[in-house]
Amino acid sequence: MKILVVDDDPNILELVSIHLSQAGYDVMKAGNGMEALKLLDKDLPDLAIVDVMMPGMDGFELTRRLRDEAAIPVLLLTAKGELEDKEKGFLAGSDDYVVKPFEPKELLFRINAILRRYDKAVDVHIRVGPLKINRQSYEVSIGKKILLLPLKEFELLSVLASKPNHVFERDYLIERVWGFDYEGDEQTLNVHIKRLRDKLEGLPEGIRISTVRGVGYKLEVAS
């Protein structure tokens, strides 16, 4: 998953990019609207995070261009909370907005909500080594073996497999699989990870879920 971040403040640009990278996203960075549009000639992101107050082309105009020219969902960053700015953002075609200063966790929640709305959270077909996941048929296969997984285990494995050998934070996994309004505790995640490990254990293809203490989990695939 690629996210384009556009902000003329290099500190905000770097801060947002770090949090997105830690959450498992590939990040494209631009310091202004024209630079962002040039990046689209090389690659197409799944979502754009756009600052409203930028010199030259402001965030509202860039949002209109992104929506009209590439149909990319847009999350606006604004330093203001006035109704007029919110209205202008939605009229320009933005999908949501976050008011600065914001908590990184809130930004991730809103990104994931938009991606779910557009059904872009995870690719339909995922292949990692011998592991194949079909998110349309909910079928998981490793070599010739078919794994029958409950829905939450399937979703959890899909997220981990979407970026193999990448460490996903525990909070991020909980939000992606159970939703940002989930009120349970981390034990639920632990139980589902254990069940997935039990089902992957003993398979000769060298696929396993490893724990990164204090951070989260990653899906490791032997080369």
UniProtKB/TrEMBL annotation:
<protein>
    <recommendedName>
        <fullName>Heme response regulator HssR</fullName>
    </recommendedName>
</protein>
<keyword id="KW-0963">Cytoplasm</keyword>
<dbReference type="InterPro" id="IPR001789">
    <property type="entry name" value="Sig_transdc_resp-reg_receiver"/>
</dbReference>
<keyword id="KW-0010">Activator</keyword>
<dbReference type="Pfam" id="PF00072">
    <property type="entry name" value="Response_reg"/>
</dbReference>
<feature type="domain" description="Response regulatory">
    <location>
        <begin position="2"/>
        <end position="115"/>
    </location>
</feature>
<keyword id="KW-0843">Virulence</keyword>
<dbReference type="Pfam" id="PF00486">
    <property type="entry name" value="Trans_reg_C"/>
</dbReference>
<comment type="function">
    <text>Member of the two-component regulatory system HssS/HssR involved in intracellular heme homeostasis and tempering of staphylococcal virulence. Phosphorylated HssR binds to a direct repeat sequence within hrtAB promoter and activates the expression of hrtAB, an efflux pump, in response to extracellular heme, hemin, hemoglobin or blood.</text>
</comment>
<keyword id="KW-0902">Two-component regulatory system</keyword>
<dbReference type="InterPro" id="IPR001867">
    <property type="entry name" value="OmpR/PhoB-type_DNA-bd"/>
</dbReference>
<feature type="modified residue" description="4-aspartylphosphate">
    <location>
        <position position="51"/>
    </location>
</feature>
<keyword id="KW-0597">Phosphoprotein</keyword>
<keyword id="KW-0805">Transcription regulation</keyword>
<keyword id="KW-0804">Transcription</keyword>
<feature type="DNA-binding region" description="OmpR/PhoB-type">
    <location>
        <begin position="123"/>
        <end position="221"/>
    </location>
</feature>
<keyword id="KW-0238">DNA-binding</keyword>
<dbReference type="InterPro" id="IPR039420">
    <property type="entry name" value="WalR-like"/>
</dbReference>
<dbReference type="InterPro" id="IPR036388">
    <property type="entry name" value="WH-like_DNA-bd_sf"/>
</dbReference>
<feature type="domain" description="OmpR/PhoB-type">
    <location>
        <begin position="123"/>
        <end position="221"/>
    </location>
</feature>
<dbReference type="InterPro" id="IPR011006">
    <property type="entry name" value="CheY-like_superfamily"/>
</dbReference>
